[in-house]
Design a protein that fits this description.
- Chain B: Keywords: Cell membrane, Membrane, Transmembrane, Transmembrane helix, Transport.
- Chain B: It is a multi-pass membrane protein.
- Chain B: It holds the Pfam family BPD_transp_1.
- Chain B: It comes from Plastoroseomonas hellenica.
- The complex is a heterodimer of chains A (about 270) and B (about 280).
- By secondary structure, chain A is an alpha/beta fold.
- Chain A is globular.
- Chain A has eight helices and ten strands.
- In chain A, about 35% of the residues lie in helices and about 20% in strands.
- By secondary structure, chain B is mainly alpha-helical.
- Chain B has ten helices and no strands.
- Chain B has helices spanning about 10-45, 60-65, 70-105, 105-120, 125-135, 140-160, 165-175, 180-215, 220-230, 235-265.
- The longest helix of chain B has about 40 residues, at about 10-45.
- The chains are: A alpha/beta (about 270), B mainly alpha (about 280).
- Chains A and B meet through strand 6 and helix 5 of A and helix 7 and helix 8 of B.
Chain lengths: ~270, ~280
Amino acid sequence: MKPFVEIHDVAMRYGGVEGTLALRGTSLSVAKGEFVAVVGPSGCGKSTLMRLVTGLWPATEGTVIVGGQEVVKPLSVAGMAFQNPTLLPWRSILDNVMLPLEVVEPHRRRLRTERAAYEAEARGLLKLVGLEGVEKKQPWQLSGGMQQRASLCRALIHQPALLMLDEPFGALDIFTREDLWAVLQEVWLARRPTVILVTHDLREAVYLADRVLCMSSRPGRIISETRIPFSRPRELATTYTPEFQALVAALREEINTARKSEEVPGAA
Amino acid sequence: MPLEVAHPKDRAAALIAAARRRRVLQAWLPWIVVVAMFGFWEIAVRGFDVPEFVLPAPSAIAASMVKWWQPILQNAWATLVTTAIGFALAIVFGLALGVAIGSSTLLYHGLYPLLIAFNSVPKVAVVPVLVIWFGAGAIPAIITAFLISFFPIVVNVATGIATVEPELRDVLRALGARPIDIIRKVGLPRAMPYFFASLKIAITVAFVGSIIAETVASNDGIGKLMIVASSRFDVPLVFAGLIVTGVMGVLMYAVAAAIEIRTTGWAMRGQTDPMTQAPGG
């Protein structure tokens, strides 16, 4: 099958010719409907990778292809969620979730005539993530975890073919995080978008993804990939099995190696 | 258990009562301050026997207001209309230019020095030029009110739009939003608190502008009234004009503040009373 997202030998440098090299020689491909997690030491360019794939930033070298077309401007098929909820404070939760519908075609054209149907869908999504009854509240009236759930709904509402998640659960406590893993898995199983999840949390990566890609330290590139064999839907109990723990430990080891390789030039 | 510890219910009731007392005091305090100021003024003028043509007592000013109520009202109305037209023009052009230079770095760098230079020119020096162009009357006053209140609006709106968090913009850009969408959905709402903050400054300086112009060359308006009154050494009437201007400024400010609270309440959540807010989460 032809991959949905393809990155060929991409490099990204910030701040001109002498600037910081964030990525170098990065290649990866993601099949349609696949769930891929990207892990790596901090500062390895994971977030840069996200921005390249969605076309928010142009790559310095190499090509990024999404859905068979080279990415030269921001995509319109992507849904994004960041570490911060980034909700608009002047809109109610429901209006925040419906924001993509006001921008993305064909919803944009239909929104006026089919508002009720769209609103029902938004309410359904909010219910799915456990936010029933707060639709009319303002973002600041909700806790951080609830805002993050709403942010996830906003990334999903327009049924994007590609879901880009940049440490979406990074700022949450472990209980909320585990709740949201289950929600995300449920949504993914129901709709099968292509997902690229950037995370620091190896348990999260192994629990959610079909494939975990490990990046080297800056300038980042993909140094290994691990297929996750567990069947779906995965239960939280899966994360306590020895097989799961062994996978996490192996990934941990790889990241350690990646970090050590970074320390060598630093010491010189 | 020590005796002085109150029952939790009583303590909650006491807290609510204290909050209510504070709110009542807060509502009355401006009036108390104004009355106290006039009282102090009256006593000082009488006590030190200050001549009326130096500083008239509030009672003399009030008497003058009653005596001349018709011309005061007529001229106050003229000034109010002049100011309102100038201010409305400042809102329209200030908002448009603010959005333009706030969303384009190129325009920002290109126009900002000129705007600063323009704002540094004393408006009182511009009035004679305006009189040469348009003749004495309401038009120089409208333009002066516009010129003086335009700048704070432009600067604030531009700041509000230029300081949109990059992540908020990315959320929309990742959806394929056009620049105009980003301005409409994020830039403008984000700039609204800045805009209304600037309106509160702009409306008060708009009065300054129109009255300056009226004192130089106009057939009516509070500025004209005060010039005529001072040429007759009718100092109480001059002060009556000053007070009427102050009252109009406060009223217009109150209108701007009321609109601000209605439209941008989301930005002022920190100032609402915690006793009336339900906690989230």
